Amino acid sequence: MTLDRQLILSESKDYLWITLGLIQYAFGFTFFVLPYGIVTGGVTGFSAILFYALQIPVQTTYLIVNLALLVVGLKVLGFRFLMKTIYAIFMLYFLLWLGSVLMPTNPDGSYVRFLGQQQEFMALIVGCCITGSSLAVVFYHNGSTGGTDIIAASINKYYNFSLGQVLSLIDVFIIVSCLFYPQFGEMPARVHKTVFGLCAMGIECFSLDFAMNASRQSVQFLIFSKKYKEIAYAIATKMDHGVTILDGHGWYTGHDVKVICLLARKRESVNIFRLIKMIDPNAFVSQSAVVGVYGEGFDEMKVKIKDKHLKENEELTRKAEEFYNEVQERNRLEKEKG
């Protein structure tokens, strides 16, 4: 398969999963969040506030705000970075519109509450778990729903603030703005809506992180086998994974052994075990969870490197070279004496 064809298939797969994630988001937001008057963060949350207060359709506000942010984002981040974001914005606009059309209403025009009356907190939990996990699907496949993500990415490009810090600050600002809308009733009612909104933000973020971490969880294998060459070759060729062969020594047997060390995604475990069992059913295998794996084929080390860190690294490199030369010289002199 050519490189261009692989790239097209990879991009097509990303767009397919982004679409499925957006469908899930629109379902959770339209059927569980909106009918119960729950406020969330982001542009959809801001759109919901205007819908509750002024009856402006959610999809209309969502599109107008995102188009304004796209103008800023295109100048700062570039068109290539925002291609999937542009697709997601227009697709989610269409899905929110479709949801508002398909959503059954009561005689007074309000949306039907599928979980029953007085079930706001249950709707909050169900709806935000659905929207949070759907955002994980979108983000995992290199997508974005636009909105506050564009603001966060633009600020992150020029200032040393993480995306999470910026997004959380914007979401809190949007939710707290409920206190200034008299359409929501007296101050106790506004405080109630604000507290529910903050709870919604927490549950959605928890669901997002849980889904993202579950999909990225990695494991480490230590494989002891006399057929280590065959197992290493099979893993390298069939799983497209790098492996490391370690030298070991059996304490009881006194024999030298070779140990295969392998880092992989947890979802690949079954295939790896299948390969091992096919080649050597008597192999001794240890599998353990690891906190994080960073580098080629895994996650990127997302830390900022400042100029002072580069200067420190140059100094460290110089001292390490000096220390290594001193050790080599000392070992040479000891050999000459001994």
Average pLDDT confidence is 81
Taken as a percent bin, the fraction of beta residues is: 5-15%
Order of helices and strands: HHHHHHHHEHEEHEH
Uncertain stretches of 5 or more adjacent residues = none
Task: Name the helicity range.
Answer: 55-70%
Shape: elongated
The number of helical runs is: 11
- Identify the strand order in the major beta sheet: 2-3-1-4
Q: Give me the count of strands.
A: 4
The rounded distance between the terminal residues' Cα atoms is 61 Å
Describe the structure.
This protein has 338 residues and is of the alpha+beta class. The protein has 11 helices and 4 strands. It has a 4-stranded antiparallel sheet with strand order 2-3-1-4, with no helix packed on it. The longest helix is centred in the N-terminal third of the chain and has 31 residues, at 3-33. The termini are far apart.
